[in-house]
Amino acid sequence: MSSVVNFFEGIALYVLFIARFFAQLFRRPFEWLETGRQMYEIGAKSVLIVGVAGLAIGMVLAMQTSSTLARFGGQGLLPSMIAVAVLREIGPIITALVVSGRVGAGIGAELGAMRVTEQIDAMEVAALNPFHYLVVTRVLACMLMLPILTVYANFLALLGGFFVLRIEQNMSLKLYFDSALRFLNLRTVLPALGKTAVFGFIIGSMACYLGYNTSGGTTGVGRSAMIAVVLATVLTIVADVVLVKFTIMLFG
C-alpha cells in the first residue's frame, strides 16, 4: 500500500515540478549564457554518438530490407522506404533514446551532486533562484537541441543507406535522394520533428526533477542518475506512441 501511495505522490510532485517550470520559463532575468552553455553541453558533446547511431541505422535498414524488397521486385522503392522510416519514426526515437542515456544521467548526477553538497541551498540563501538558473535552462536546452540533433541523425542515416546501395547496386547519389524524397513533404516531416521537442522536455524535466530532489548523499546521486535514464527512456517511448497516434489523426 505504501508503495502505491509513494508512486502517486511522485507523479504529483513531478506534475508540480513541471508547473513550476512553466511558471518560471518567461520570468526575467533570462539566463541566456547558461542556456547557451547547456545547449553546447547537450548538443555539441552528443554529436559523435548521435552521428554513429544515425549512420548505423541507415546502413542496417538498407541491408536488412534490400533482399526482402528484391523478392517482390521493389528495390526501386528502397530509398523511399528508408527515408520515410527514418524521418518519420526511427530517427527521432533513436536520437531521443541516445540523448536520454547520455544527457539524462549527466543532468541527474550534476544536480544531485549540487543538492547533496548543499550548493543549491547556498544559492537560495544568497537570494538567488536556483530553479530558474539550473532547471529552466537545462530543460529549455534539451527542447531546443533535440530537433537539431534529430535532423543531423536523419541526414547521416540517409547517407548510411546510400553507402550500402552504392556498394550493392552502384546507385548514384542523385538517383538515391530523388527517390528517397519522392514521398516526403512538410506534413510528414514537421510533425515527426516537432515531437522531438517533447522528447527533449521529457528528458530534461525528468533528469532535473530527480537531480534537484536528490537525497541520501553520494548513493542518492547515483540512484538519481540511474532512475533519470530509466524513467526518461520509458516516458519517451510512451509519449512516442501517443504522439504518433495524435499526428496520424491530425495529418493522416
Account of the 3D structure:
The protein is an all-alpha fold. The N and C termini lie far apart (43 Å). It contains nine helices and no strands. The model has no long low-confidence stretch (mean pLDDT 87). The protein has one domain (2-251). Helix 4 (78-116) runs antiparallel to helix 9 (217-251).
The value of Rg in angstroms is 21 Å
In quaternary terms, these chains amount to single chain
The percent of residues in helical segments reads over 70%
Query: Percent of residues in beta strands?
Result: under 5%
Q: List SSEs in N-to-C order.
A: HHHHHHHHH
Low-confidence stretches: none
Q: What is the count of DSSP helices, taking H or I runs of 4+ residues?
A: 9
**SS-derived structural category:** mainly alpha
For the sheet with most strands, the description reads: none
Number of strands: 0
Gross morphology is: elongated
Mean pLDDT: 87
Distance between the termini: 43 Å
How many distinct folded domains? 1
What's the helix and strand layout?
Layout: H1 2-24, H2 32-43, H3 47-71, H4 78-116, H5 119-125, H6 130-169, H7 173-180, H8 186-212, H9 217-251
Helix pairs in contact: 2-6, 3-4, 3-6, 4-6, 4-7, 4-8, 4-9, 6-7, 6-8, 8-9
Descriptive keywords:
252 residues, mainly alpha, 86% helix, 9 helices
Short description:
Helices cover 86% and strands 0% of the residues. With 252 residues, it is an all-alpha fold.
